[in-house]
Amino acid sequence: MAKPSPSYAGEHTLVEIGKAVRHIRKLRMVSQEQLALIADLDRSYVGRVERGEHNLTIMTLVKLARALDVPLVDLIRE
Questions:
Q1: What's the CATH code, domain 12-68?
Q2: DSSP of 45-63
Q3: What per-residue confidence (pLDDT) applies to 8?
Q4: Nearest 5°: phi and psi at 6?
Q5: Per-residue model confidence (pLDDT) at position 2
Q6: pTM, rounded to two decimals
Q7: CA 48, CA 43: separation in Å to the nearest integer?
Q8: Chain-centre distance of CA 5, in angstroms?
Q9: In sequence order, which residues have a C-beta less than 8 Å from that of residue 38 and are 6 or more positions away?
Q10: pLDDT of residue 42
Q11: What pLDDT sits at residue 6?
């Protein structure tokens, strides 16, 4: 399981991405566990993403965008 990225945890951009993921997930009325299953990620990882604790890869962002059925740009707007 991936560990939080201490050198990037709390970085503004990661926090904003996490807020966007959480906001869209809640609009879609999807739990973290459901999102994790659809995106093929661990539930605890999704929670850490939403808190801005991970320096995500592009492919993880793509998985989340697909699972939420939104364009990738919707997750990275500030």
A1: 1.10.260.40
A2: HHHHHHTT-----HHHHHH
A3: 75
A4: -60, -30
A5: 58
A6: 0.89
A7: 9
A8: 14
A9: 30, 67
A10: 95
A11: 66
What's the one-letter identity of residue 41?
L
Contact 55, 6 (CB under 8 A): no
CA 3 and chain centroid, separation: 15
pLDDT digits (tens, 9 = 90+) for 5-58: 667 777 899 999 999 999 999 999 999 999 999 999 999 999 999 999 988 999
- Extract the tokens encoding 63: 């998985």
Cβ burial, residue 75 (10 Å; 0-12/13-18/19+): buried
Q: Residue type for 74, please?
A: D
* Rg, the chain, Cα only: 11
Q: What is the pLDDT of residue 5?
A: 61
pLDDT of residue 72: 95
Q: How far apart are CA 77 and CA 22, in angstroms?
A: 14
Q: Where are the domains of the chain?
A: 12-68
